[in-house]
Each structure stands twice: as C-alpha cells, then as structure tokens.
Amino acid sequence: MTTLKQNTETLPGPGRSISGGIGSGLRRLLVSRLAVLLIATLVLILYFQFASDGVFLTPTNASLLLRQAAVVAVLAAGVAVLIIVGEIDLSMGSAAFLAGLVAAQCQVAGLDLVTSILAAVGAGVLMGIVQAIATVSFAIPAFIVTLAGFLVFRGIGLLWTNAGAVGPVSSDFIALTEGRMPAVIVVAIVVLLMLTAVLQSYRTFRDAKASITPTPARIYLQKVVVPLAAAAALIWISLGRSGAPYATIWIGVVALALGVVLNKGKFGRQIFLLGSNREAAVYAGINAKRTVIIAFIIMGVIYGIAGVMLTARGGTSTADAGTTLELVAISAAVVGGNSLRGGVGSVVGAVMGAFLLSTIDNGMALLGVSSYAQNVAKGLILVLAVGLDGYFLRRRRSRS
Amino acid sequence: MAEVATTTGLVPHEGTGPAVVLSGHDLGKTYGSTKVLNGVNFTLREGEVLAIAGENGAGKSTLMKIIAGIISAGDYEGSVQLDGDEVMFASAKAGTEAGVVLVPQELHVVPHLSIAENMHQGNLPGRFGIYDERLSIKEAKQALAIFDLHLDPSAPASTLSPPQRRLIVLAAALHRSARVLILDEPTAALTDSEASVLLEHIQSLRSSGVGIIYVTHRLDELDQIADRVLVLRNGAMVSEFDTVPPRRDLVSAMLGKTLESIQAIRGEATIEETGGRVLKVRDLCVYSGGITGRARVHNANLDVFEGEIVGLYGLVGAGRSELARALYGAWPETITGECVIGGSSGFPKRPHRAVKSGLVLLSEDRKSQGILSGQSVARNLTASMLGELTTSMSRLLLDEQKESSRVAELMKKLGVRPSRPDLPIDALSGGNQQKVLLGRCLIDGLKVLVLDEPTLGVDVGARKEIYLMIRSIARELKVGILLISSDVDEVLTQADRTLVMYKGRIRAEFPRGASSHDLLSAATGAVS
Asked: What DSSP string describes B281-334?
C-alpha cells in the first residue's frame, strides 16, 4: 500500500519536465562538481586579487583573460563531446594550427574575411572526416588515430610554410576575437542573459509547484544565478579600458550550440548512451558508427573555429601556434567533470575548466611566477580534481 | 519410474573392488540467501567414470568447483576426501597439484600466449623461477599427439579455432598425471569425431586407474562411457544409478516431476487465431571462423505469426543465442539463408536496421548487452525509441514532455519498482532492470520480439509479471514473440508451440500441451 502511494507521488505526470530528474547519481555528482569548480575559481580569483595588489580583478585584465581562455574553452567544449562518447582527441593543437594556417594563407592571398573563415572551417571538417573514417571504418583506436593526426597535421603545416610565419592578417581578422564589442551588442547579450534568467526562474517555480520535493538550490544556482552573474561581469568588463572582446561571443556560441546538441538533441542522448556502454547501446539499436562519425565532424568544425581564433589572437600564423593545446583542452574538460570512462560530462563543465586553468596562467603570470611553475600548478589541479571525484564516487557507492 | 533408485543421504560403499579415490560428504554451497547445493554425497573409485546429470542450474558446476578447489575450502559446507584423507584446497592450483584436475566448461585460453604456455597454465615447467621453454614445448607436443593435432606449440593461441582451444586444454589435462579428472561438458564444442577420440582416451585413462567425473547434457554419451550416474536437481542429489539407466528414467529424474504435476501448471488460454506471418526464416546457417568453420546453427527454418508466442528450447551450446543474434544483425561473422521480417526481406546487417524493420532482441546478457550503467531508468527505457520522441519542430531535438509521459506510461504498465525514473538503472533489482529492458523493446511498429532467456536471474515475483507482460505484448499489440529459454517449464507454460534445438539444428516442434519429457528428450538427443 505504501509503495503504491509513493508511486503516484513521485511519478512525474505528463507535461511535467523530467529533465531535472532524468539525471542519475553521476549527473548529480557532475552538478556538485560544477559548484566546486565555481568556488575553486572564485577562491583563486580572490587570492590573485590580493597577491597582485588589486591588478588581477580589473576590467582590463578580465578582458585579457577572456581572450586567453577563448581557444582552450572552445576546444575543451568540443572534446567534451568526444570524451563523453568514449573517444579522445590528441590532434586538437595541430589541427587548430593547420586550420589557422589555412585562414592566414587566405588572408595573405588577399581573400576576404568570410572566405578565410570558411576555408579554415572546411580544412577542419576535412581533418575531422579523415580521423572519423580511420577510427570508425578501420577500427583503429581514436587515441592512435589522433596521435597520428597530432604529428601529421602539424607536419603538413610546417612543410607548407617551411616552419615560417604566415601573416600578418588583416586588422578585421584580428578583430574577430580581439576587437572590442560595441555597446549595442553588449546590451543585446545582457538582455538575452537576463531574459534567460527570468524564464528559468519562472520554469523552476512552475515545476516546484507541481512537485512534492523542493527544488535543490544548486539547480537554481545553475540556471538563474549563473546567467545573471555573467551579465553583470560582461557589463563591468565592457566599461573598462579595453572593453569586452569579441572572443566572448565565440565562447558563448560554441558552448550554447554544443550544450543544446548534447542536452536537448537526439544525437546528444545517443552520445551519452554509447559512452556509458557501447555494446548495450548498439544492442538497443543505436547506430554507433554514424554517431561517432558525426562527433568527429563536429570536432572538425571546432578545429576550424579554434584555428581562426588562434590566428586572430596572434595576428600571424606561427610554427608553434597551438602546441600542447590538445593537452590543456583535455585537462580542462576532465577538470570540468568529463569522465574519460565515458557517459558522463558536460560542455559547461569543460568551459569552466578552461577558465580555471586560464585563471591560473593569467594570475601566476601577473605575479611574475615562472611559466614552469604554472605547469606544476595545473598538473596538480588536474590530479586533485579527478582524485576527489573518485573519492566522492566511492563514498557515495559505499553508502548506498 | 519405479526403477529409479532414490538414495539421498548415501554413504560410501564399503564393498570390495577398486579403492575409493575421491569422495564428498554433505557438500553444500550458499550464495547470499540462495542455497545452490545442499547435502550432496558421492564416491568415485579408481578407474571409474561417474557421470553427473541435471538440468541447467541444478548445481553441477558448483559441485565441480568445490571438488577442484575453485571454491576454496571454508567457502563451502561438508568435506572432500582424496584417498581417504580430507583435503582442503585453497585454490584450483592446489587441487591440480594434488592430482584433481578440472577442465571447466568455459575455457580460459589467453590468445596472446603460445599454445604451450596455455597448456601449462599454472605450472610452467622450469627451475628457480626461470621458464624452460624447450621442456614446455616438448611436453606440449606429447600432449597434442593425443588428439593427433599437428600444431606448433610456440604459435599464439589466437591462431586456434574454438574447438581446437578446447582440444588443447583437454590434451593438457589428459597428459597431466592426474588422480581424478573432472570434465565439464567436454564435448560441447567438438565435432563427433573429435568427441569419439576424447571418449576413447577416457577409456584408456580409466584402465590406468584414473577416476573420472563427467558432466554432460548429452545423454547419448553416457551409454558409451559412464559406469554410474548421479542426478542433481535444484542443488540436491535426487538419484544415483549404478548402471546407466534407460534415458526415459534419466530424464524423469532430471525433471523430478510426474507428468501430471506439469499438466497442472499449464492451462492458460491458448491463442484463438493467428494473423499474418511476421517472421520467416529459411535455411539459416550461422558460422563461426568463416564459412569453412564450424556452423553454430544448421539450416534452421522457422515462422512466427503475429500474436503468437513461439518457444525455442535448447540446452547450453545448442545454438539458440547464435540464432537470435543472427536475426538481430548482431552476429559478427558469416550467416547464410533467407529471412523476411514483416515486409522487409534479408537479414538485418546491424541491430539498428533490425529495430527499424520492427524486430527487437532482448539479450540474455543483461549486464553487458542490456543495461546502460550509470544512466537513469528513464534514459534506459527510451534508448530504442528516441526517434519517436523528437519534437514536431525538428527531428533532431528530443521532446522532453513526450519523453516523460512515455516513461511514466511504460513504468506504470511494467510495474517497475521503485517508480522513480530518475534513479540510476544500477539501483534497481535484477527483476526490475529486466522490466525496464522489456519496456525498452516496446517501440512503435514492433512486429517481432526475440526474448533470449528473459527471466534469467529474475526472482519469482518479477518473473510472473514479466510473463504477463509478454503475453499482453503478443495478444494486445499483435507482436510475434520468439521466446528462447533453457527452462523447460518456461516454454511449456508460456509458448503456444515450441521448437527444440540440439547441436545447432531445430530438431523437433511440439504443439502446446507437450510434456517436458518430450522436450528434454529432444534437447538432449535422446530421440532423433
């Protein structure tokens, strides 16, 4: 009798969203991971602020941080998709370099902005397709395929330029990421973010009324507080001397697009299911080959975008552009809760991980600490983040 | 049935004749709260072949594991005596060293190691911890000669076919100077000629005084080699025959039921009318190891009509699961034959194609081919029907409201407990996981549902609910169901008619109302 009663209470009726409830224990872990990540970043920001005598937390430095973090954030968001489906990508740095080189060559040849961008994205997609075919059709592990891509893509670029720099690109091209957004765009984004917050708080309120259990505070935090905080930060940065850079839009668009694909799309669901048990998902009738190929092609688009951003940031395409970027992006995704075992993760986490790592870079550089020490710090944080995950997971399991 | 000598609580004979080499007293084993073996006694004399018979799950493998030390001393009840002294094997290695050698049903051949290394697993020849490869290869060659196998012992084991793998393990075991040799379904993967070589060799081992325990499903082999037969049922010893009895008596003892008691559990409404044919299979052959390799399924023909439940009964290794995987596009190697599913002809190439044409398989391997571990119950439930749950705006986006109402509807229909779609699937009991997986099969346009051991490891309560579900899927949704099972009672009570497989062939078809006796006879090759 009691079980029957419980059934009717906890069953979500038709029409009520179970998107909040559909997540499992691991998903809850991920949400708490995001909260930890946010707190860790805030603590670091405060530390750097005091240690640097107030230089760190200025609109100018925040603008710089955004521009520094942008490429890593975009790549981390892309590789999160591959990590969730149970694959990996070690070629990101080289692929972004080659795509950026294509854009720079177009610029030097006098082609216009749009053509240069499209050429870079085309080159990226091509690299994605090649790696997809090698991984899926020839059944070579993605680790090996993309390790080869890591060598081949940079090798091709170096052969093409004889390891020389290609540039300079036009000032319009540089402005793609570095340029200051006009007030109109900033206002438009801020309004959008605020509308999102209002809509989300309305929905949370509506669902809370329909449900017996109270809405956890962290969901409210994630859906309402974060957009509002982002809007406030954007206004603050745009009022500074260098303003809010266009890089912000790239990060936002990529994260939003991939977030929707993963969380609302059929494809995204298939990514999660394949990642948690490839064989069982195939037995459930999911076309594993097609899904993994599409994931690699999406990654290819990301190569193109990241390549453009890399070249725009440097002003020229240099031979060492994007070295070790693949490892930083994977670290960011993993720190952000994307499990290399597959089936768990998020784009938001990957982007937040990228910001955490960039904050360390930026802050330590500001304090005049050697870049070697920055690597030590980032390495320790990577191990700490994953180690804590394992610890909490084991504790949760032993309790249940 | 009067001639069945029921001798539970047996004590070792103290007669004349060869000495008792191995005996077990009151052997028992409990897993969790389930008693899988209880109060089993046996004796084995030198030069004797003791056959152990029983249905799947009767406790045969557990008994073998206790004797061989795989279940270590202290983890079971009762005692084992070798040559009159109690032995407490801590591991299979200890058992082997004492002369009790087990060839298990599932082999552990390491593909990357050489044939010789695989044959000497656990006791590589050599001194001071240094492996003597030459000696190892020499011994391996001698052992391989038993089956007239001309293989290079230094070649990796991955070059062997599955029957060859079994042969090398058997050869290694036969070559070892064992006191007691335990063979668990040794002929399951062998051809008839390989099996007869094995049986001949058993005869010669027996004349040299080795005691042999022989576990098999194939009753025809017992006539050839067994001296005595011990029958287990539900973990208990039910009969001991001092000679090999007529098969009819053996089958009765294995089932443990009179025909009347089986009639009593039947009696649900039979199907009144059958609709159109939803599955037609002709001349299906399923091969492993290429088209020249061994056929796991030979020339199978079968039809399933809409609204009908067709049982497919067979013992382990009969080729049932291979047939199911071939129908679902999940068999990685060659298949030949004709197939029509609903309106589309041809075998599906991959599972998602099968699902599209309206055929879904519920795999017997729930853990690795069923549940999506770490994902929620809801996500597990809708994994096969994502295409139906997209928004009207775009086929690429999922409609959350559609999904949640479908999940709620299915969970209510299936009676999944607890009724919490947000829990990870791992938190549910086996029976409830199985209900979720059954719900996953209920796609739009379902025509054929292949259920491979749908109640394996499911408790009695959930089992009953699953049966009701299966029945309502067939009758109400007009789906044709192929119910694959190694449980006689399951096919007898649930199927409208039953096909029986033996050694890769569909050997017989029985209408509703057949006896378990008939089924088991056909499934063990006792009748042709």
From this structure: EEEEEEEESSTTSEEEEEEEEEEEETT-EEEEE--TTSSHHHHHHHHTT---S-
CB–CB of A24 and B423 under 8 A? Answer: yes
- pLDDT (mean) for A27-31: 59
Chain A interface, mutation test: which of B355, B366, B404, most A Cβ atoms within 10 Å?
Answer: B404
In this complex, is the C-beta atom of A206 within 8 Å of any C-beta atom belonging to chain B? no
Is B152's pLDDT higher than 50?
Answer: yes
The model's pLDDT over B274-328, given as tens digits with 9 standing for 90+, comes to 568 899 999 999 988 766 777 889 899 999 999 999 999 987 778 888 899 999 9
Are the beta carbons of A266 and B396 separated by less than 8 Å? yes
The closest of B294, B293, B303, B309 to B327, measured between CA atoms, is B303
Question: pLDDT band at residue A396, thresholds of 50, 70 and 90?
Answer: low
Interface membership of A28 toward B (CB under 8 Å): no
Q: Which residues, listed in sequence order, are joined to residue B201 by a DSSP beta bridge?
A: none
Give me the mean pLDDT over the A305-320 stretch.
95
Query: Domain locations in chain A?
Result: 31-179+245-399
Q: Give the per-residue pLDDT at B272.
A: 47
Overall pTM > 0.80: no
CATH architecture of A31-179+245-399: Orthogonal Bundle (1.10)
**Phi (first) and psi of residue A80, to 5 degrees:** -60, -40
CA-based nearest distance A270→chain B, Å: 8
Residues from chain A contacting residue B408 (CB–CB below 8 Å): 11-14
CB atoms within 10 A of CB B129: 6
Q: ipTM of this model? A: 0.84
The answer to whether the CB atoms of B378 and A15 lie below 8 A apart is no
Residue A260's closest chain B neighbor by CA? B397
